[in-house]
Amino acid sequence: MSKMSPFQGVPLPKDWPEYVRLAVIHSIALAHRAITYSRSFAINSSIERVRLAGQLDRALNENALLREEIRIKDARMADGLCRIIDVEGPMLAKRSYDIYLRGCGIRRMGRELKRTMNKALQYAIQNGRVVKEDESDRGGLVYTIVRLKGTPPVLVRERGPRRFEEIPPSELQYVARRLADKGNHEAGSDTHLRAVLEFYDLKRLTVQVGTMLLESLDHRYPYVEEVIRGTSDPKPKPPRAD
């Protein structure tokens, strides 16, 4: 038989959780005060070994604070990119960068900004929120196609505000293959490529556009095969405005 606790039945004061919270805060403040005092004493010590140890401790603390600030910055930027990708994905990573930066009043992405945006997107990928595919084999995170984890790898939409080069190659291939079957076009023919352009409300079949279309047809995307086997005719969905 278990013994009765001596504190059983003792009434607790009203709002006791708040008192506990305040006690913890004061304890942390006192501990921080003690650490700060000890560190300042060590840094100003006449003993060189103690002084160097204090300087090293301060440098390590500042470094830890800086790493935490960078992590918070990356997390906030990653959250903004995820909201953009949630609306427009699958999409070109560079387009998500451009939309994010335009929202911040920045019109041009330089080298340092690209490195910063890459770090934020990599943070989202490492945390399992975003999936990337190097569909164009160009290398570099900025040219990958990104989408939120658990969302369809291929989504057919109207071109909307996207430039032609911002349309994912897998989407182009899906549309091209469905139009070839539906319109009885020879794959890669001039009439076939123009049918794809017409689907996206475009008319000029330039050398660059034609090359991009043919390259997208030559690639093999397993998820496009899966979508074609399991879906009917593509029904375009207009992307939202920037």
What does this structure look like?
- This protein has 2 domains: 68-151, Orthogonal Bundle (Arc Repressor Mutant, subunit A), CATH 1.10.10; 154-242, no CATH class.
- With 242 residues, it is mostly helical.
- It is elongated, with a radius of gyration of 29 Å.
- 21% of the residues are buried.
- Helices cover 59% and strands 4% of the residues.
- The protein has a 3-stranded antiparallel β-sheet.
- The chain has helices at residues 16-43, 48-88, 93-103, 111-126, 169-183, 190-199, 207-218, 222-230, and strands at residues 91-92, 130-133, 145-148.
- The chain is built from 8 helices and 3 strands, in the order H-H-E-H-H-E-E-H-H-H-H.
- It starts with 15 loop residues before the first helix and ends in a 12-residue tail after the last helix.
**Terminal CA distance:** 70 Å
- List SSEs in N-to-C order: HHEHHEEHHHH
* Major beta sheet summary: 3 strands, antiparallel
The number of distinct helices, counting runs of at least 4 residues, comes to 8
Category by helix and strand content: mainly alpha
Q: Which consecutive residue ranges, at least 5 long each, have pLDDT under 50?
A: none
User: Rounded to an integer, what's the Rg over CA atoms?
Assistant: 29 Å
